[in-house]
Hints:
Blueprint: H1 2-10, H2 16-24, E1 32-33, E2 36-37, H3 38-43, H4 46-52, H5 55-62, H6 67-82, E3 91-94, E4 109-113, E5 118-122
Parallel strand pairs: 3-4
Antiparallel strand pairs: 1-2, 4-5
Amino acid sequence: xxxxxxxxxxxxxxxxxxxxxxxxxxxxxxxxxxxxxxxxxxxxxxxxxxxxxxxxxxxxxxxxxxxxxxxxxxxxxxxxxxxxxxxxxxxxxxxxxxxxxxxxxxxxxxxxxxxxxxxxxxxxxxxxxxxxxxxxxxxxxxxxxxxxxxxxxxxxxxxxx
Length: 161
């Protein structure tokens, strides 16, 4: 009992007001892509960006971008420039599902074609190095565990309307 009193007397006393003030301050983590801040990512040249990417996108950039990919980046740049300050830019529709997301595309809204319609994808910093197709699913996932008519023996006895 004496040791418990001794431990309690050693703990520092903190006001509740101070404790809430310290906990209310929230620090947001700055985004980094492979150790490089977002501000510095936008300033990188294509060669420096290639060094940061994984092997497949690096190979793709090494072999050169096609005219269609460059045209998409130009359209996104123009849409971002035309947008009013603090608002999302206009949607730029594309069929280029194999376009790799680069830092210049951050903040843009891309309509990615999934075979039936265009899925709006708002490009964020975490998407760098991924393909546009990864964010616009092109198939309807199967729903297992829901048998239809003829799926089980008992479904034969369900009257059809």
